[in-house]
Amino acid sequence: MKTMKLICPLALAFVLAATGCKHQPVGVTPLTPGPTPPPIETQPTTLPGSTMNPDNGPTSTQGGGGIPAALPASFDGMIEDTNALASYTVHFKYDSAAVQKTEKSNLQAVAAALSADASTKLLIEGNCDERGTEEYNRSLGERRALALREALAKIGVDPSRVRTISYGKDKPADTGHDEEAWAKNRRGDFVLLHPNPNAPAGTPPS
């Protein structure tokens, strides 16, 4: 009986000691994530008709706005004239693909150039400033180019004569890192395409 009396207090002491050694779980306060930066803008070169993965290179586009797609083969072998329409570049507001009313005269000049020579076609290059992800800016550049194609179609340009391409942030007009440079880089460039006079005889007309 004496032995049992000794064992009971010892067992109780062991249980209490073991209980006291357990660490109560400490609540972890989750880190509050910082604000997600807004999708922003940022701009590649390829011949009309080529298509590459948006993450790895330029994206050639031809749909959008319910306008019939241009046939890529009809642009094969055409010669790019980057200077002819360089003064009619259209600029966009920050993170926007809306064509501003102030750009109407530029669009009309481009339409007039195409109307003056039925053998020519047009490549529209969509560009962005350096801010934002590569993927986002490729998408934004595409939307800008398609918006310009649609705007030209509304003033009489045959959309089958127009191809579009997105350069994202890869082709800046100004390499600066301030608002003045970014404003120049948020743009759509027009490249006049001429038939190749050296095309082999028998080549289907474009």
Shape: globular
Structure class:
alpha+beta
Return the CATH topology of the domain at 70-194: 60s Ribosomal Protein L30, Chain: A
The average pLDDT value, as a whole number, equals 77
CATH class category name of the domain at 70-194: Alpha Beta
Q: What portion of residues is helical?
A: 25-40%
Q: Give the end-to-end Cα distance, rounded to a whole number of Å.
A: 112 Å
Q: What profile does the largest beta sheet have?
A: 6 strands, mixed
* Total DSSP helices: 4
- Subunit arrangement of the protein: single chain
Query: Would you identify the CATH architecture of the domain at 70-194?
Result: 2-Layer Sandwich
Q: What's the number of extended β-strand segments? A: 6
SSE succession: HEEEHEHEHE
**Fourth CATH level, the homologous superfamily of the domain at 70-194:** OmpA-like domain
Strand content: 5-15%
Low-confidence stretches: 15-57
Q: Rg from C-alpha positions?
A: 31 Å
Keywords for this structure?
about 210 residues; alpha+beta; 60s Ribosomal Protein L30, Chain: A; 6-stranded mixed sheet; 4 helices; 6 strands; about 30% helix; globular
Topology:
Blueprint: H1 2-21, E1 59-61, E2 79-81, E3 90-91, H2 104-116, E4 121-127, H3 134-154, E5 162-168, H4 179-185, E6 187-194
Parallel strand pairs: 4-5
Antiparallel strand pairs: 1-5, 2-6, 3-6, 4-6
